Write the structure tokens for this entry.
Amino acid sequence: MVVNVILLIILFFQTVMNMTRAIISLYATDMGASTFDVGMLTAVYAFFPLIFAIYAGRVADKIGDRLPVIIGLLGVATGLAIPYFFPTLFSLYISQLIVGVSTIFITVSLQNLLGNISNENNRDRYYSYFGMAVAFGSMIGPVIAGYMGEHISYSSVFFVSIFIIIVPLVMAVFIPVIKRNKDIKKVSLNASVSLLKIPILRKALIASALVLYSKDIFIAYFPLFAKQYGISTSMIGWIIAVQGFAIIFVRFFLPALTLRFGRDSVLIASVFMAGISFLLVPFTGNVILLGALSAIMGLGLGCGQPLSMTTTYNASPKSRTGEVLGLRLASNRLSQLIAPVFFGLVGSWAGIFSVFFISGTFLIGGLFALKPEKKRKLVS
């Protein structure tokens, strides 16, 4: 019952997020935004989460997960209402600031709750379900946004999102309150960061950051790239949705893949696939080929999040699971803050095509940080 509630909340929440984030770059461009503005707008979303993610995890450990989720969903609804009632570029910045800080309480608390109600035997399966719910939202959201943006208006996407978010808000009332850390002593930021000394945890955070920033860059810049080839807004939505479908597909087989090949091998192969796909995007403007590359990218990116979530939770001190998941989210947001600004500058200077070349290079380069550590031989 609780698992179903969590999955439905994340499904509706991710649908809303992917509706608005798939359309926001086109909405901003329609208002006269430059490529750099789009990068800054994407980075603003990650600014407050970078600061407050660890705190959000501590809150979840101390007071339970229900209240943070409810507050987060109310914040998202507020943030999404602003661009509809005040359609300006400045309102988009304010909206993304509010939505960004609100999402951390939802994401960290739901991941923490799922870990708390599971055990070592079913945790991989539960996080795989969670990942598939995220992927379903990633598939549905862009399609809805594409058709609404093309046939009604960009602002209507935000208006409809406000009503959709009411569904998970009602369901959040049924979330149980599980407190894992009753110690109210303050923990320093250094104490949280020191958890990065755990090698397996550090590798999981790097993998998660690579995947998240790549998805953000694709959603932010692909619509601008596609518009240069005259591809319609609805078709852009479908191409992005194909990636979500591929993510769902690969996550059905993820437990079997990890069992057969091992987590490290699956993770390295998936990041490599995503990197190659990024590198190939600028070489074509054909809708079918772009859809195929989006699918291959989804197959690669689809493995990173569930594997990193399970590894992060399992490597966490048992009374600080929310805090560590918050640390994971903070590392994600750091990459999501730096990358869009960097790529916004690159795109403004060298063109939108260069964004995909450099992003693909970063992904493939990141494989060096994910290589399994060689076991030391014992000397007799």
Remarks:
- The chain has 15 helices and no strands.
- The chain has one domain: 2-171+192-369.
